[in-house]
Amino acid sequence: MQIDCVSVWEQCLKLIKNKVPDQSFTTWFQPINAVKLEGSVLTIQVPSQFFYEWIEEHYVHILKESLVATIGERAKLEYSVIVDQGAKNSSPYTVNLPNLNTNSHKNDRVKRLLNPFELDAMDQPTDSQLNSIYNFETYVEGDCNRLGRSAGFAVAKKPGTTSFNPLFIYGGVGLGKTHLVHAIGNEIKANLSDKFVLYVSSEKFINQFIKSVQNNEVQSFQNFYLQVDVLIIDDVQFFAKKEKTQEMFFHIFNHLHQSGKQIIMTSDRPPKDLSGLEERLLSRFKWGLTADLQQPDFETRMAIIHNKMEAEGIIIPDDVIEYLAYTVDTNVRELEGVLISLIAHSSLNKREIDLELAKQTMKNIVHDIETEVGIDFIQKTVAEYYHLKQDDLKAKTRKKEIVIARQVAMYFSKEYTNHSLKSIGYHFGGRDHSTVIHAVQAVNDSIDVDTHSRNAIDDLKKKLKVKNG
Ligand code: ADP
Ligand code: MG
Q1: Each residue of 183-192: pLDDT tens digit?
Q2: CA of 293 to the centre of ligand 1 (A)
Q3: 286 contacts 265 by C-beta, under 8 angstroms
Q4: Which of 238, 302, 332 maximizes ligand 1 atoms within 8 Å of its Cβ, making it the mutation to test the pocket?
């Protein structure tokens, strides 16, 4: 028995790993132990009540899917929560998973047709495939997304009748494309309940299409999609080189567009850079409005952190919010990963979230965020090289030898990390980004004219590279 539950859980973990970001997997799934398997009931042990609640709220569908795939349709999950760390004899707390499969179709018009979403046993057959937590209230507005957000809102009010058809949203990973299009879909459903809104990822569309070809059901596949009033199709860059799928999409697109139906698409790049897509399809994409999402600026990151924590019912001090907004400046998904780790750390160690905990958490995950060495390591290495203390680099002093070392450390922070100028300045005693620009310039100038400086930089490069390699 003992062996069984462990191997079943290992199977599940393999499936789960493919479906959640690495960060979340490490935080939420690795600490779980399987404790018993009785019939098709698997009992897992989680470290705290909070863990249990978080998993139920965020990962219950993924857990259910992986369990069903591993043990079969009748799979059930029970939790055993460790109430007090170390106390093994705590009485288990058991909860059954909701049965998702009772969630049948409400929309009769759709039910009569073959529904490709039912072809995948792993999918829950819900109507719109929309996630209700992605809505406009939770989507923080900033300069980075103003155009996309307001165009999306206009489309949500009058789908198919604005000139924003198709609406094409593009931007890098984790900048909020998927969230925004779900928000549009949810808004339409809330105001116009008779509209059939459908969200589908391009990968799923491609797979459904391939399956329909294999099963001789291409016509049904097409008919299903022609019923849709608002078609949201995510990450169309994956259509590249899939010629047959593109052809099918082209027909569906034209038909829907001509009948005044709304089409919303996302992509990780603008239409002009979508190589591998047919010209006629690309020119269709340009009919409506193309809006891009940019990286959020500091203030928007502050607002996002604030909102996310509030939504989780957690209050964190302003200096922590500020620290995180400065430090994590790549994209919103990464920011969320850090917040989740922070919450987990605070819960597991039973500690209030404060600046120190935030810094510790960042240290643990900093390797994921920075591609190479971190600012901290650079400061230590440079300080040691110049026989100074790391704190000297952050202090106010303008002594010449300290100024030089500080400039060199800033220079390497710019070269070797992904931090913005603003963030680098922040890590050097809260200096301005223009100070960093000046430092980088000064070091570059001195390398050009002064052998002594050039040698110092070369030496330091070697020391810093040790960590890289
Ligand atoms: P993309 O599809 O562009 O890769 P997502 O839409 O999946 O990005 O966004 C990644 C995460 O960041 C999601 O959890 C999303 O809720 C969050 N997010 C992105 N932009 C915002 C925003 N403006 N306000 C609040 N949350 C955001
Ligand atoms: Mg996405």
Answers
A1: 999 999 999 9
A2: 10
A3: no
A4: 332
